[in-house]
Amino acid sequence: MKAAVITFPGSNCDRDLVVAFEGAGFQVTRIWHKDAELPEGVDVVGVPGGFSYGDYLRCGAIAAKSPIGGAIVKHAQRGGYVLGICNGFQVITEMGLLPGVLMRNATLRFVCRTVTLNVVTTDSAYTSTFVKGQQIRIPVAHHDGNYTIDADGLKRLQDEDRIALTYADNPNGSMADIAGILSENRRVFGLMPHPERAAEALHGSVDGAALFAGLMGGMALA
Amino acid sequence: MKARVTVMLKTGVLDPQGEAIRHALGSLGFAGVTGVRQGKVIELELAATEAATAEAEVKAMCEKLLANTVIESYRVEIL
What we know:
heterodimer; A: alpha/beta; Rossmann fold; nine-stranded mixed sheet; globular; B: alpha+beta; Mth169, Chain: A; three-stranded antiparallel sheet; 2 helices; 3 strands; elongated; ligase (chain A)
């Protein structure tokens, strides 16, 4: 399986994301934001955390309209997998690949700690190795993770079982404690926590590695 | 030609930054502030010479990039 990891100016989790993908057995290509196309045969695009374009205008807004942005949207539209982590989640919501928006944390504070997450659905490649209701430990590090959506949109996410992860103890004020959501076809996944920072025993948790392993296995079946 | 775009959070969207400003004003002794909303102002220099063309252009820019219309509203002024 082939993964592509995008680097924007200000991305700072791109290398870690490459290592996590490789750890799960993916063949990874690193892509620069000025490229307008993805390499042939890419199965999953990883949009990493960081502060793309300095978080200017709105977090993720400028990255979403960058040259590679259009290629990522096309990849998703033809049924490709996209994993957006932290700033990457902000970028793919700005692209319109996922509904809603990530606003400033309700506390106005940057939050950086390992949090407990509830696995709400296992009906996605990303969460396929977990058990429904399982609690996992993954770090968060963000200032704008307060997921916000209108009432109809939230109901739709709930009815379609698209809320994949929720916080056990909400660190940012996000609606319905949302930490990560899936697209309609369950192939685009955006989450604020950093699974690539919980991918080796040395990190203190390998729950993130299980997510990449699940993706590898789930995609192979798809 | 110049344009000024004002981007504000839509009514009903909680503005934590505005709230923090309101609290700070209260602690400075400004007792009469019942609400604060924070937004942004973007000024553009345009090559367009007709106001109508400029306005249409800037509106398209707002829809595409300058505002996230899920939570923000915008106002365009041609100066």
